[in-house]
Amino acid sequence: MDYAFDAPPVDRELLDFAVRLAGRAGQLSARRFFSDDWHSRLKEDGTEVTEIDVAVEELMRDELSRRMPDDGIFGEEAGSTGGLSGRRWIIDPINGTTYFTHRVPLFSNDLAYEDEHGPAIGVINMPLSQQMIAAGRGLGCWVLPGPDPDLPSGRRAQVTERTNLGGARTLMHNPAGWPEELLCALHRRVLLMPSTGMIAALVTGRVDAGVIAGPPMGYEDVAPMPVIVTEAGGRVTDLDGASVLEGDMSVLITNGRLHDEFLQLVNGLPHSRDYRALDDGE
Known about the structure:
This is Inositol monophosphatase. The protein is an alpha+beta fold. It has two domains: 12-156, Fructose-1,6-Bisphosphatase, subunit A, domain 1 (Fructose-1,6-Bisphosphatase, Chain A, domain 1, 2-Layer Sandwich); 169-266, D-Maltodextrin-Binding Protein, domain 2 (3-Layer(aba) Sandwich), CATH 3.40.190. Helices cover 28% and strands 26% of the residues. The protein has eight helices and 15 strands. It has helices at 12-33, 51-67, 97-101, 180-189, 198-203, 219-222, 225-231, 259-266, and strands at residues 40-42, 48-50, 72-75, 79-81, 88-95, 108-115, 118-126, 131-136, 140-145, 155-156, 169-173, 191-194, 209-212, 235-237, 251-254. α1 (12-33) runs antiparallel to α2 (51-67). The radius of gyration is 18 Å and the shape is globular.
């Protein structure tokens, strides 16, 4: 499912609603971040979850069910709820739970919306840095500051205009899971830096590109990306050039001008390291 450039703009009121809902999720998660009354546990897939993940998703689900009762919902913690409209909301209540549990203020509250034309709304809220990135199809991408963000307070987001791949500022996510071939190929050509908020950094022009490899992302992780990146003037695919929503859940985001050259650089390279080859004794 790709971003449809010829689709009609999404309703501005719907984007306003998504911004407010993500803001409420951020306020709840920020309050609980500084408290000591929660615990984490491992899910069946080995990833962490906290009571706050569940509480934030419940808050968002309850409001979506009340305001949009015919829409479907997919959330990281509670799975899918069917709808009648053919439209769907995707929730990642706390993207970066490991950061959250280790008291590192780099988590976000993510929300996406898909209609009959495809990706329509993407919101990434970073409550502890008091910055939200919100985009609607045909409405642009916006950076919204403060503890209670809204669209009128925002400024337009825009990617860089860099056209030279050599030395391009490139964020890397989860490099511990990268294969040596991918890491070396990129290291030889671009300036690799650790990610502390890849999407926000790209659409505000602080970097030129970002790469996510290693263990695959979940659908809820990538769902906001097509609208946000495209509306800011960039491009997003997986590392093979396929739709990021239908590919192998690796991610390449760029300012658009560098995208094809990045794809050529990583063409044919593995996207995840072979953990079976590791020897704990070495």
